[in-house]
Amino acid sequence: MSTYYAGLLADIGILVLGALSVYIILVTNQLSLGNAGFMAIGSYVASFLTAEQHWAVTPALIVAALTACVIGVIVGFPALRLKGIYLAIATLGFGEMVRSFFLVFTPMGGSGGYRGMPHVSLGYIWIWAAGILLLVTLLERSRLWLEMRAVHDDERAAGLVGINTTLTKVGAFGFGAAVAAIAGGLFAHHYIYIEPGNFDFQRSIDFVLAVILGGSTVGAGALVGAALLVLLPEWLRFLADWRLAAFGVMLILVLLTRPQGILDRPLLALLRLRRNRAA
Amino acid sequence: MLLQQLVNGLTLGAVYTLVALSFSLVMGLLAILNIAIGELFMLGGYLGFAVIAAHFPLAAALLIGMGGAALVALVIDKIGYEPLRQAPPITPLLSTIGFSIILQNVVTNVWGSDPLQLPSGLFDRRVHIGSVQIGVMQLVVIGVTVVLVASVALLIQKTAVGRALRAVSENREVARLLGVSADRITLFAFMLSGALAGAAGVLISLHYAAITPYIGVDTGLKAIAVMVIGGTTSVWGALIVGPLIGIAEVMTIAFGGSQMRDFVVYGLMIVTLLLRPQGLLGARSDSGQPV
Amino acid sequence: MTAMPPKAILRLDGVSKSFGGVRALRDVSIGVAQDRIVGVIGPNGAGKTTLFNVITGAHRPDAGDVTFANRPITRWPAYRIVRAGVARTFQNIRLFGSMTVWEHLIVSQRHGGSPLRKMLPGRFADREAWGRAEDALTFFGLEKYRTALARTLPYGIQRKVEMARALTAGPKLLLLDEPVAGMNRDEADDLRALLLRLSARGLSILLIEHDMAFVMNLCHELYVLDFGALIAAGPPSEIRTNPAVLDAYLGSETAC
C-alpha cells in the first residue's frame, strides 16, 4: 500500500472515532459542536504521558480517555439546562475555550505546538477504530441504548417510564468525550506533532458532517461518513479546485433528500434481511 | 497610545456588532444558527474590495457588498432553510455549513487563497485630534455601523415590517392567521441579515486594507459570542457588547496579555447561556429555550 | 367527604398546585386502595391531568404530600416514582418516535440487575425482560405489530402499546389518562374486560375518564374534581345521585 493511501486510511480511522464521539452524544438528542475540545484534551494528555513520562501508547490513551470522560461529565451537567441550538452554541464555546487554553499553555508548547511522541502504525489506529465501532454497534442492541433513544424521542415521556434522563444525558457526554479523546491521542501519535490549530471549530464540524452524511441514527453511519468525508474530495479530483464546493453541494443534497443520512435503521434492517435470505 | 487603541478596539467592535446583529436576526426570528453568516461577511469583504480596487467610491462598495451578500442569503433561505423548516433545528444549521463550505471554496477560486491587499495611500488619510491619530476609515466604520444599527432598530421597532417580524418570531401560526406571510418575512430577515454581514465585511476589509478567505470563521465565532452575551433578541445588547469585546481584544494585543482573552470571551458566553439565556440586555420573557 | 380507605397504596394529602395565577389543584386529598379501580372525573380543566402530573413527578406540588406504598414520593424525580411502582399513560399518546412496538416493551422494564447487564446486547442481557415483553405482546394481542414503528399504527393500537409499555415497567399502580378516548363501544368493552383482568391480578388502577357509562360500570370508587377542588368522593352509585356533582358536571353534559 502506498504511503498516500495509508495516510488517507489513517485519517479515516481517526475521523471514525471523532464521528462516533458526536454520534454517541447525538443519540440523546444533544448536538455537540465542541468535540474537537475533547479531542484536544485527549491529544495533549496522551502526548504528555508518552513523550514526557515515557508511557506506552495504549495506557496513555486509556488515561487520556478517562480524563476526557471526567471533563465530559463536568460539561454534561450544565448542558442539561440547554437544548437544541443553544446547547450547540455552548459546546462550540467550550471547544474554542479548550483551543485558546492550549494556545497559552506553554508547558505543552503553547501556540508553537508540541512534539516528541512515538509514532503509531496504521493497524494500531484501526484496532482502536474498529474496536470502538464494534463496541458501539453491540451497545446499540442493548437496553441502555434504547433508553438513550427514548430520551432522544421524548425526554419527558422517558422520565415517566422510569429512565433517569439526567444520568443518561450526562453519561452520553462522558462516553462521547472519551471516544473523542482516543481520536485525539491517535491523531497526536500518527502525526507526531500537534498544535492547538489542529483542534479548531472546523474539526468539530468535520465530526458532525461525517455523522450526518453517513447516518445519524446508526453507529455504522460514522464509518460511511468518515470514509466519504476523506475520500470524496479525492474522488472529486477531476473537479480540481471546485471539489470542496461540489462537496458542499452534495452535503446540502443529502440533507434535503435524506436528512437522517445515508445509513439508517430501516436500511440496515433491509440489508440484514437480504443477507439472511441469501444464506 | 491608549486612546489610539481604544479607537482601534471600537472599530473592530463595531464590526462584531454588525455581524452579531446579522446572526441574531435569523436566530431571534427562527431559532436557527446560520453558520454561513461568517462567509457572507467574508464575501462582502471581497466584493467591497473589488469595487474599491476598480476605483469606485466607498458607497458603491458598501452597496455591492451588502447586495451581493443579501442575494446569497436569499439562496440560502430558499434552498437551505425553507425546505427544512419542519426538520429539527440542527438540520438547517448543517445545511448552512454546506453553504459556508461552498462560499469559501468559490471565493478562494476567484480571488486566491493568499491575502489581498489594497494599495497603500488609498485610505490612510488621518485626522489628528490632540495626540491621537484616527484613520478616516475608522471613523467611516464606526459611523456606518451606528447608522446601520440605528436603522435596523428603527425598522424592527417602528415599521409594519418590523411588527410582522416580531409577530413571526413570537408565533408563526398566529402571524399567519393575522395575514402575515411568514415565508416572505423569513426571506426578508435572511436578506437583511446577509446585508448586515456583507456591510461588516466591506468595513473590516477596508479598515485593515487586507482580506483573506479565512476571515469569516474567526469573526463569525466571535460574533456568535457577542450575540449570546448581548442577548439573541436584543439589538442594543450587541451594540454594547461588540465594542467591549473589540476593545478588550485590541488592548490585549497591544499591551501584552494573550489568547487568554478568547478563553474569557467564550467562557462568558457559556455562563450567559446558563445563567441568563436571554442575554445581558434581553427581556425576561424570551427565555431563549424553545423546547 | 374524604373517606380515606384503610389500606391505601397511594395517598394524596392536601395537595395544591398553581400555574401563574391559576389554581389547578386546591387542597386535594385522595386515596387508592390495593387492588381497586378508582376513577377521577370532572369537567374539562378541573385539574385531573395536573393531578396525574403531580403524582408521577412531572410537576411538583406547591403544598401537600404524596405517599406511595408508605413512602413519601412528593419530591422524587419522575423516574424514581416509576421505579417505585407507578406507571402511567398519557392523554395524548406519547410513544417514542423511533421505536418499534417490541422496543417499547423492552425500554420500560426496570427489574434491578446490575447496570452492566443492561449494556449487554439483546437477549443475552435479560431473558426475563425478553419473556415479559413477549407476555405483554400476547396479553394485548400485539404479536403481529412486533416490528412495526409504533407511531405509524392506528390510534387504538397505539393506546394498547402505551398501556403495554406502562405495564412492562412492572407497576403496582397504573394511572390511565382518558383510556377510552377515541374508542368505539366494542373497543371500550374490551378495555374494560382487560382492566378487570389486571385488577384481578392485584394491580391498582387510577383512571381519568370522560365516558360516564364506562366509569360507572368499572370503578369501585370515584373522585369528582371541579375547578381544582374535590367536590365528591364515593362509590359510583352515590356519585350518580350526589347533587353537587350533578350540578357541577353531570347535569351540564348528559342526564346519565
Your description of this structure?
The complex is a heterotrimer of chains A (279), B (291) and C (256). Chain A is mostly helical. Chain A has one domain. Chain A is built from twelve helices and two strands. Chain A is 74% helix and 1% strand. The mean pLDDT of chain A is 92. In chain A, helix 2 (35-52) packs parallel to helix 4 (84-104) and helix 9 (201-214) crosses helix 10. The longest helix of chain A is centred in the middle third of the chain and has 27 residues, at 165-191. Chain A starts with a helix and ends with a helix. Chain A is globular. Chain B has 291 residues and is mainly alpha-helical. In chain B, 73% of the residues lie in helices and 4% in strands. Chain B contains eleven helices and four strands; from the N terminus they run H-H-H-H-E-E-E-H-H-H-H-E-H-H-H. In chain B, helix 1 (2-30) packs antiparallel against helix 8 (182-208), helix 5 (136-158) packs across helix 6 (160-170) and helix 6 crosses helix 8 (182-208). With 256 residues, chain C is of the alpha/beta class. Chain C contains ten helices and ten strands. In chain C, strand 9 and strand 10 form a beta hairpin. In chain C, helix 3 (101-107) packs parallel to helix 6 and helix 5 (127-139) packs antiparallel against helix 6 (155-168). The relative contact order of chain C is 0.18. Chains in contact: A-B, A-C. Chains A and B meet through helix 4, helix 9 and helix 11 of A and helix 4, helix 9 and helix 11 of B.
Put the structure in a nutshell:
The complex is a heterotrimer of chains A (279), B (291) and C (256). Chain B is mainly alpha-helical and 291 residues long.
List the defining traits of the structure above.
heterotrimer; A: 279 residues; mainly alpha; two-stranded antiparallel ribbon; 2 strands; globular; C: alpha/beta; 4-stranded antiparallel sheet; 36% helix
Give me the count of strands of chain A.
2
Largest interface summary: A-B, 41 and 48 residues
- Overall pLDDT of chain A: 92
Q: Tell me the Rg of chain A in angstroms.
A: 19 Å
- Which descriptor suits the 3D outline of chain A? globular
Instruction: Name the helix and strand elements of chain A from N-terminus to C-terminus, one letter apiece.
Output: HHHHEHHHHEHHHH
Number of helices of chain A: 12
Which structural category do the helix and sheet elements of chain B fall into?
Answer: mainly alpha
Low-confidence stretches of chain A: none
Largest sheet of chain A: 2 strands, antiparallel
Across the major sheet of chain A, the strand order is 1-2
Task: Write down the Rg of chain B.
Answer: 19 Å
Quaternary structure of the protein: heterotrimer
Cα end-to-end separation of chain A:
33 Å
